[in-house]
């Protein structure tokens, strides 16, 4: 897919105030600092579309972008930021659950996983929660340039093996680096194919 246009539309705390659900929608989520903003900017080919923030976990908003006048890209606030209070965390959970379960035009959620690490409980828990809610998702292993290829694929395999303990079928996964600009085409082609269905 060629990105001809990418524009920021609106940020909301309430899924009901999101843009009219008249276009297919793809959401991106992951632990704070996983590289979500960088990935969104790489996909859209715009350096500052999503903010790469210095204070992770601060923006607790559902951010909508319009791509090619044809689909919505949604930047969801990250989870697992230690300095967030209990009440902020509950607010996040409620907002995310409502959005993910009720947004009718949501086609797919891309869950970002930091490829530098061995499987993390928080990511696995979030994914299993998506399963319970029956929300379609894929995995994006980020920051692949930070490790050797061997280490990255070891971590990816370990993560998928962990998922196999709970899941009969594994979702597709992507491996990305915004430094080396890898994984972009694969994700955009995947979205293009879903949009064509
Ligand atoms: P977010 O909090 O999930 O939106 O994460 P950011 O996109 O702000 O990235 C967090 C940090 O990781 C920043 O310092 C980025 O420059 C860095 N980062 C993000 N993606 C990559 C990547 O693919 N490779 C490397 N080496 N660093 C990355």
TrEMBL record:
<dbReference type="InterPro" id="IPR019987">
    <property type="entry name" value="GTP-bd_ribosome_bio_YsxC"/>
</dbReference>
<keyword id="KW-0342">GTP-binding</keyword>
<keyword id="KW-0131">Cell cycle</keyword>
<dbReference type="GO" id="GO:0046872">
    <property type="term" value="F:metal ion binding"/>
</dbReference>
<keyword id="KW-0460">Magnesium</keyword>
<keyword id="KW-0132">Cell division</keyword>
<dbReference type="GO" id="GO:0005525">
    <property type="term" value="F:GTP binding"/>
</dbReference>
<keyword id="KW-0717">Septation</keyword>
<dbReference type="InterPro" id="IPR027417">
    <property type="entry name" value="P-loop_NTPase"/>
</dbReference>
<comment type="similarity">
    <text>Belongs to the TRAFAC class TrmE-Era-EngA-EngB-Septin-like GTPase superfamily. EngB GTPase family.</text>
</comment>
<keyword id="KW-0547">Nucleotide-binding</keyword>
<protein>
    <recommendedName>
        <fullName>Probable GTP-binding protein EngB</fullName>
    </recommendedName>
</protein>
<dbReference type="InterPro" id="IPR006073">
    <property type="entry name" value="GTP-bd"/>
</dbReference>
<dbReference type="InterPro" id="IPR030393">
    <property type="entry name" value="G_ENGB_dom"/>
</dbReference>
<dbReference type="Pfam" id="PF01926">
    <property type="entry name" value="MMR_HSR1"/>
</dbReference>
<dbReference type="GO" id="GO:0000917">
    <property type="term" value="P:division septum assembly"/>
</dbReference>
<comment type="function">
    <text>Necessary for normal cell division and for the maintenance of normal septation.</text>
</comment>
<feature type="domain" description="EngB-type G">
    <location>
        <begin position="22"/>
        <end position="197"/>
    </location>
</feature>
<keyword id="KW-0479">Metal-binding</keyword>
């Amino acid at each position: 897919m060629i990105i001809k246009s990418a524009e920021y539309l609106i940020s909301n705390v309430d899924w009901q105030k999101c843009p009219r659900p008249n276009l297919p929608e793809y959401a991106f989520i992951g632990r704070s600092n996983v590289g979500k903003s960088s990935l969104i900017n790489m996909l859209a080919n715009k350096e500052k579309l999503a903010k790469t923030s210095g204070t992770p976990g601060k923006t607790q908003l559902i951010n909508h972008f319009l791509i090619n006048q044809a689909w919505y890209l949604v930047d969801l606030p990250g989870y697992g930021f230690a300095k967030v209070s209990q009440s902020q965390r509950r607010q996040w959970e409620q907002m995310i659950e409502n959005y993910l379960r009720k947004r009718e035009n949501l086609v797919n959620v891309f869950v970002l996983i930091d490829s530098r690490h061995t499987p993390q409980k928080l990511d696995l828990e979030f994914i299993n929660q998506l399963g319970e809610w029956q929300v379609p998702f894929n995995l994006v292993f980020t920051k692949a340039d930070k490790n050797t290829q061997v280490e990255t694929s070891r971590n990816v395999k370990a993560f998928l093996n962990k998922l196999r303990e709970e899941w009969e079928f594994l979702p597709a996964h992507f491996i990305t680096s915004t430094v080396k600009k890898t994984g972009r085409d694969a994700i955009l082609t995947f979205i293009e194919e879903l949009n064509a269905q």
